[in-house]
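go over my protein:
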Amino acid sequence: MNGKRYSRQRELIYEALKHTQEHPTAEMVYQWLKPENPSLSLGTVYRNLNLLADEGSITRMAFPVERYDYNTAAHPHFCCQVCGAVYDLDLPYDAGLDEQALLASGHDVTGHEVLFRGTCVKCKNLQ
């Protein structure tokens, strides 16, 4: 965490993300931390998540509701269309796709994001 000056609340929020495989919303992080941190506000969570994302310590993911990811390395995600859960997929980043986009468009391509959609294993097993 590169941050500006140290903030205990920012550290709590960062550690919560660091220790989960979920890709939580700000509301989820707030609910996790609030019981042991009664002075924490939802606004503080949003502000610190956005600060961490702006400095590159976490990744902001623009789903219908923004989610946050501790893993800042380029990697694909899967979003369940039934329950809305978001998962990392263990697939390699395809830098060749960046090159193809550059050649096809002439734009300076610095990266890409891949999002797969469908039904997760948990929801499939409930059907």
Q: What stands out?
A: The CA atoms of residues 103 and 117 lie 27 Å apart. The chain has two domains: 8-69, 77-126. The chain has five helices and five strands. The longest helix spans residues 42-54.
